Give the backbone structure.
Amino acid sequence: MQVAQTSNFGVLGTGVVGQTISSRLIALGYHVRMGARQAGNEKAAAWVKAAGASASEGTYADAANFGSVIFNCTSGSGTLAALGAAKADNLRDKILVDISNPLDFSKGMPPSLFTPTGDSLAEQIQRAYPSTRVVKALNTITASVMVEPTRVGGGEHDVFVCGNDAAAKAQVAALLRDGFGWKTVHDFGDITGARALEGYVLFWVRAWATLGTAEFNLRLVR
Amino acid sequence: MQVAQTSNFGVLGTGVVGQTISSRLIALGYHVRMGARQAGNEKAAAWVKAAGASASEGTYADAANFGSVIFNCTSGSGTLAALGAAKADNLRDKILVDISNPLDFSKGMPPSLFTPTGDSLAEQIQRAYPSTRVVKALNTITASVMVEPTRVGGGEHDVFVCGNDAAAKAQVAALLRDGFGWKTVHDFGDITGARALEGYVLFWVRAWATLGTAEFNLRLVR
């Protein structure tokens, strides 16, 4: 598969999303380094122990340096700080798959976006790291379904990518299809498509409350 | 059907959405008055001529006064002015189905929302007219599909309502199901659900560009 252009992935974040993505990449035969604020993070160390010889952990900078492709699985509110700690040199020219969402829960439910209208977190990242090939993806789905679409609706539902670098998008789309099992990957254009994908998350949160489960997704029908 | 509690509808707006909704209501056997900034609006007059004896037109105030249920089919940027012209007395205690979207195209594509994050146009309407029973609905779909869901995907896709008045929501949901033919009407809770439904429209615009047609919709799959 096309994504085998690399065998080393860096994953920023030790939460459910980071662990789910990392474990799936290990299962696909890749090497994964999970990054946290500090090396020796308890959750990262436990994950490494369970994941085996292809797994390692360290700081955000360690993970970013290790990966040819980097997944940002930090919470939206911590993303820019995490990338700063990862260091621009370790992000230069690399593919950064941004799964984060700029959700502000400070006023309770429903959350709002902390990015102003007409902007998105992925665009903020792209502006801060101009040579990094940012691809927004997977932020519209709960973690378990990201890597196992057949958990809902027989896998007949959709995922989206956007970004300014066509080759980077194609590589991520190939990983989603061939690695994670997605049948339908829509190309939502350049990085401004992240406004659509992040705005959708407000809808997602309400649908989650309505349906009573996070294990759902949308299918576009024509 | 439950919506037969009323037989008179007011429709604010003479564009494609207003004409589509109005014509469908006429076909269902109701009386409809279409409202515009001024009585005698050219598009409204042409619609009345085509729609027959149950159709009439006038000012926004005329339409609001006539209807027991009122559809807001004005553009988002003109909505609050149109409701002001419709006059609070004519909106008091009535159901207002709000189809508008707070889209700002002033900076080109993609549009942004002119409501700040953590708010929505429907909430602004509800705050301005506290006794009016605002129900957000249908703003997530192109006009032709609003009243004929079978135009896409065999009708197997979803529509949403939200609002603070449960009886009003139930009446609108019944009209959507029994009158317009919707199979799945999700209740997105109180009027703050409009943040989700209006935020979704940024996603809709991108999907429209990607799919190359406005005749699509989403289905939530579990």
In short: The two ends of chain B are 30 Å apart (CA to CA).
